[in-house]
Design a protein that fits this description.
Keywords: ATP-binding, Nucleotide-binding, Transport. With 311 residues, this protein is an alpha/beta fold. The protein contains 10 helices and 12 strands. It is globular and about 65 Å long. Bound molecules: adenosine-5'-triphosphate and magnesium ion (MG).
Amino acid sequence: MSFMQINDLNVHYPIRGGFFNTVIDKVYAVDGVTMEFEKGKTYGLVGESGSGKSTTGKAIIGLEKITSGQIFYEGEDVTNQRRNRNSAYNKDIQMIFQDSHSSMNPRKRVLDILAEPIRNFMKLSDQEERKRIKELLAIVGMSEDVLLKYPHEFSGGQKQRLGIARAVACNPKMIIADEPVSALDLSVQAQVLNFMKDIQNEYGLTYLFISHDLGVVKHMCDHISIMYKGRFVETGTRHDIYRNPQHIYTNRLLSAIPNIEPETRLERKVIRQKVEESYQKEQHQYYDEHGKVYPLKSISETHMVAMTGGI
Ligand SMILES: Nc1ncnc2c1ncn2[C@@H]1O[C@H](COP(=O)(O)OP(=O)(O)OP(=O)(O)O)[C@@H](O)[C@H]1O
Ligand SMILES: [Mg+2]
């Protein structure tokens, strides 16, 4: 049973121009997205730059205005209460930002960065608050020596850990993780991913994991949505997407997964070229006359693909 549903979410930005600065067009950053989330599962949201992933995440959490659509949380329509400080939704759904550096106030020490959500959502005494902050540092594997340091004193991986500590501070139900490891070295990526998995198992967290790289989400996600120009081109289980991809755009993303094994590098390059050629030749079959993605259709109980009747 899902505890949260997103129904036909739209975020459109007006483009202004001309002499009177009137609205001349719109950016359809999120254009009819529907999802549902079950407890303890990991959902991948994957697409190339500009496809609308961050806007989707921010709209869900309430940092972006919604043009239309609804969000239901535990049976209740919370669309208009997303930023309400006293709502359970605001406490239960947290986000790790794409750029952890700019999401932390450079003038605040770790102590205050971690105390902020605790002060907002939990009524703790000073002593209890200290205890909780120390617990959080232990959860993300950092020592108490960092309490008085500022964000710039940390490496990318450490900052990402602090972002995670801040997100889990008030025992959330769900974390929207926007490219949490993209800025990190491969070895550190694996560490942070493993560690996110561990805290998920321990606390039964649900993740919405945003990435532009299907390789990164492969071992994390139970369910994956592939996004292009604000719409989903394909959604399905990990097996559906990696073993039985149907949409040409999904195939293109799959062929773009970076290869770290030197033996198959050439082979992969040839595959990538072939996929790219067929993408250029056949892509018109997969998008309507305005270049928009078709509505999703079910092809199995778990697998949906955006297509016309003809494909
Ligand atoms: N405030 C805004 N005003 C106008 N257009 C915007 C605004 N924010 C985002 N956009 C546009 O919406 C689209 C989706 O942006 P978004 O940041 O969600 O993409 P993304 O998939 O997260 O990309 P990336 O992988 O680069 O982070 C882009 O075309 C972007 O230019
Ligand atoms: Mg983004």
